[in-house]
Write a structure and sequence with these properties.
This protein has about 325 residues and is α/β, with parallel strands linked by helices. Helices cover about 50% and strands about 15% of the residues. The longest helix has 17 residues, at about 150-165.
């Protein structure tokens, strides 16, 4: 997988802006004061689907229809935001969409995918088992399999970082959550295309250590996943192509635990009144952990989404600050 050029990112942005405007990046005074850092939040929770994934879906499907104009249906595995992106873009292009989620997936994300016209299938205990089932169904039902990471998906999600890096000059560090890796690869692509020196820091959940272990080893390593509020980061097997881009393009990967993620969700709500799902708050959790070494620097995080079930979020807010 090659990183998209600036021209490719500009074309991806054109496709994205046919559907949605750029999302805001805001330096919130209370958060900056709390951490002693000039902290900018890129609000991907403000997209039409409440998450950054819509960008990749729009660009991927435009590319897919050019390559395979006779295609009629697609399938993908997801924990929710990728599936919403697939369902949204498929409907826009007149295609049927099947999404496979593990049992126990977010009820509200499931409802959103159904509302977008997707056929929802529940299978397996985690994302990897859902993905394995998706591979079988794709062959049986002759559906196009939409991967979690692809050059066109990376180009699409990179438009978020492109907006941020152009809007906030001299950004020292950008923290990006890692699920399967499209978001952090997109940030690397935008940084490189603009010729900037901004450090890209990936963020994983401690409950899903596959990428942090793989980054340390320099090769893909599968690792068991424990229950986590950051379901979008619950990766058991890294994408080799994404890892290959992360190794030279990412300064480091920070792993944050459940209490840190939950605290970041609360801080985002208290200081900005924005709702963040677990994965969407993970980057802020990493900044909080590393704040002592970031004093006085200009730092940004991508709040990748706000799609958290109401009972889950209510429980997080009820905890001690």
């Amino acid at each position: 997988m090659n990183l998209p050029t600036l021209a490719a990112l500009e074309e991806a942005a054109r496709l994205v802006y046919e559907v949605m405007p750029p999302t805001p990046q805001i330096c919130w005074p209370l958060l900056s004061q709390r951490l002693g850092v000039e902290l900018w939040i890129k609000h991907e929770n403000h997209t039409p689907l409440g998450a950054f994934k819509i960008r990749g879906g729009l660009v991927y499907f435009a590319d897919l229809k050019r390559r395979q104009p006779a295609i009629t249906g697609v399938i993908a595995a997801t924990r929710g935001n990728h599936g919403q992106s697939i369902a949204f873009a498929a409907r826009r292009h007149g295609l049927t969409a099947v999404v496979v989620v593990p049992h126990g997936n977010s009820r509200e994300k499931n409802a959103a995918m159904r509302a977008l016209g997707a056929e929802l299938i529940e299978h397996g205990r985690d994302y990897q088992e859902a993905l394995d089932h998706t591979l079988r169904l794709a062959a049986e039902r002759h559906l196009h399999l939409v991967p979690p990471v692809h050059e066109a998906i990376v180009a699409g999600v990179a438009t978020a970082a492109l907006e941020l890096l152009r809007a906030v000059p001299d950004l020292a560090v950008l923290y990006v959550p890692i699920g399967m890796g499209s978001g952090v690869c997109g940030a690397i692509a935008a940084r490189n295309a603009l010729g900037l020196r901004t450090e890209i820091v990936g963020v994983t959940a401690a409950a899903a250590p596959a990428y942090v272990q793989s980054f340390a080893a320099g090769r893909p390593i599968a690792a068991a996943v424990s229950p986590t509020i950051a379901d979008g980061l619950a990766c058991r097997a890294p994408d080799p192509a994404a890892l290959a881009l992360m190794l030279p393009g990412t300064a480091r990967i920070v792993s944050v635990d459940e209490s840190e993620i939950r605290a970041a969700m609360r801080h985002l709500f208290t200081d900005t009144h924005n709702v963040a799902e677990g994965a969407g708050a993970a980057a802020l959790a990493a900044v909080i952990r590393e704040s002592a070494g970031l004093q006085g620097r200009r730092v940004a995080v991508i709040q990748t989404g706000g799609n958290v079930d109401r009972p889950v979020f209510a429980g997080v807010l009820a905890e001690d600050a």
